[in-house]
Amino acid sequence: MKILITAGPTREPIDPVRFLSNRSSGRMGYALAHAFVKQQHQVLLISGPTSLDVPHHVDYLPVESAQDMHDAVAHALPRVDIAIFCAAVADYTPVEVATQKIKKSDEFITITLKKTIDILGSARSVHGFTGYLVGFAAETEDLETNARTKLLAKKCDMIIANDVSQSSIGFDSHENEVLIVEAEENTKLPRDSKEHLAHHLAAIILKRFDRKRGGVS
Ligand code: PMT
Question: Which of 19, 29, 43, 136 is buried most, with the most CB atoms less than 10 Å from its CB?
Fold first, then answer.
């Protein structure tokens, strides 16, 4: 199977030395890439900047901004069976990028932001992806309701929701705890290392992919 995974944060430039970003370490996405490669699947990992080693035998495409990630994903989507969007993509990016380093002069400055392109949301509606589509949902409240809204709005087969209000799971932690939300059911996977969870998630995703293709579930 050919599997695309996005991971890590994006960096939205403000000037030549500054950017907006978030606390995603990339661990969850890299653990998923490792789990699928271990089962002999072909993985393309499109990743924002992280300090992690790239798992062996993974095709690796480093990107910086949300727009870069979108362009790389759009190019790869027609060639993959399963696409998993684990990256913490910035929702907003500066309207203007200063060409020179912004000087410290005024007491207050204003940076106007505009919405970034919704990479997951455009997979089916713009790029016509027909494979198995998995999104993540990083939520601080109403985990199941918000995940289910994303499942429908972005035409996903599965949303993997994590509660990012807890610092010991989710962003930049070694463990996670997720609620898998699908059209007909929810499945809770208890707290575990991201590596162990990734193996469980990979097994479930492959099983559901087979079922969607008309195979045995
Ligand atoms: O990297 P780690 O430190 O291991 O942390 C893992 C994680 C917490 C980042 C990961 O488990 C996770 O939750 N990733 C999704 C983070 C996120 O941006 O969630 P969201 O609810 O804001 O976005 C929903 C979905 O849309 C996600 O699949 C996201 O990749 C995607 N998205 C969001 C914005 C955008 N412009 N384009 C997108 O494709």
Answer: 29
Note if 162 is an active site residue.
Answer: no
Mean pLDDT of 54-71: 98
Is residue 161 within 6 Å of ligand 1 at its C-beta?
no
Beta carbons of 12 and 21 less than 8 angstroms apart: yes
pTM: 0.97
Neighbours of 41 (CB within 10 A): 17
Pairing of strands 158-163, 175-181: antiparallel
Q: Which of ligand 1's atoms lies nearest the C-alpha of 119?
A: 39
pLDDT digits (tens, 9 = 90+) for 107-122: 999 999 999 999 999 9
For the beta carbon of residue 152, count every other beta carbon within 10 angstroms. 10
The residues spanned by each domain of the chain are 2-212
Residue 160 carries which DSSP code?
Answer: E
Angle between the N-to-C axes of helices 194-213 and 27-38, in degrees from 0 to 180, rounded to the nearest 10? 60
CATH architecture type of domain 2-212:
3-Layer(aba) Sandwich (3.40)
